Amino acid sequence: MSAVTVRVVTADRTIHTFPSLAAANAFTASRAAKGCPRKPRGSMRADILQLLAERGPMVSIDIADEIDTGPDTLNGVLRRMVDDCVIAIEGVGAYGRRSYSIEPGGHAELAAIEAGGPSNPRNRLQHQAHLWMTAGRRFCSKDLEAAFGFSRSYAAQRIQAALAEGVITQAGDPLRNSRSRIQFYESAQPVSNQE
After folding, report:
1. Which CATH architecture describes the domain 120-187?
2. CB–CB of 15/9 below 8 Å?
3. What secondary structure does DSSP assign to the chain, as a single string?
4. Are 5 and 22 in contact (CB under 8 A)?
5. How confident is the model at residue 72 (pLDDT cuts 50, 70, 90)?
6. Concatenated DSSP letters for 117-134?
7. What is the pTM of this model?
8. Given this model, what pLDDT does residue 33 score?
9. Do the first three CATH levels of 43-112 and 120-187 match, i.e. the same topology?
């Protein structure tokens, strides 16, 4: 019978060798196998933008090495960033490796993150919707749906959250037609005109 050795690589890229599968399973179940704490959601996106802004166009494998992640995770993030028009595919090199560069939308997003805005795209969209709702306009759920591409249920959820925080209030009685009622909302705080 041959001796079996089991190797486990943790998130901090440390290789651990064990004499048996049972010992490796015990290690992975323990806290020692957890490796590095996870970064906040959206931070990889900010890291990629920062890297491309500083160094210019880069191949995806070099980006993966710099931000210390695997290509499977990175490729999904890069694909979403291209869809969001914050980075662009500059070219395709050997073995189908794509070269990425930052777009003007990426520079704007990076500036917003550096100014203290949320790095997670969903939180950033929620923040923008929150600012839009409190800007002193009267609006209904359909306006919020149209302005941000929200579904009806998600727009209603954002309105309920803003009502619970007390930043918006209902503006008068709901308008009724034969099939539905439309409630309008407005900012709870008066908005000063700065000129």
Report:
1. Orthogonal Bundle (1.10)
2. yes
3. -----EEEE-TT--EEEESSHHHHHHHHHSGGGG-SPPPPTTHHHHHHHHHHHHH-SEEHHHHHHHHT--HHHHHHHHHHHHHTTSEEEEEE-GGG-EEEEE-HHHHHHHHHHHTT--SSHHHHHHHHHHHHHTSS--EEHHHHHHHHT--HHHHHHHHHHHHHHTSEEE-SSPEE-SS-EE-EEEESSPPPPP-
4. no
5. confident
6. --SSHHHHHHHHHHHHHT
7. 0.52
8. 44
9. yes
Q: What is the pLDDT of residues 37-50, one digit of tens each?
A: 455 555 788 889 99
Q: Which neighbouring-strand residues pair with 126?
A: none
* C-alpha to C-alpha distance for 85 and 87, rounded to whole angstroms: 6
Question: Class of 43-112 per CATH?
Answer: mainly alpha
Please state the domain extents for the chain.
Answer: 1-37, 43-112, 120-187
Q: Which residue has the tokens 């189908």?
A: 96
Q: What is the pLDDT of residues 112-162, one digit of tens each?
A: 878 877 666 677 778 788 888 888 888 888 888 888 888 888 888 888 988
Residues in the chain: 195
Tokens 């002193």 identify what position? 136
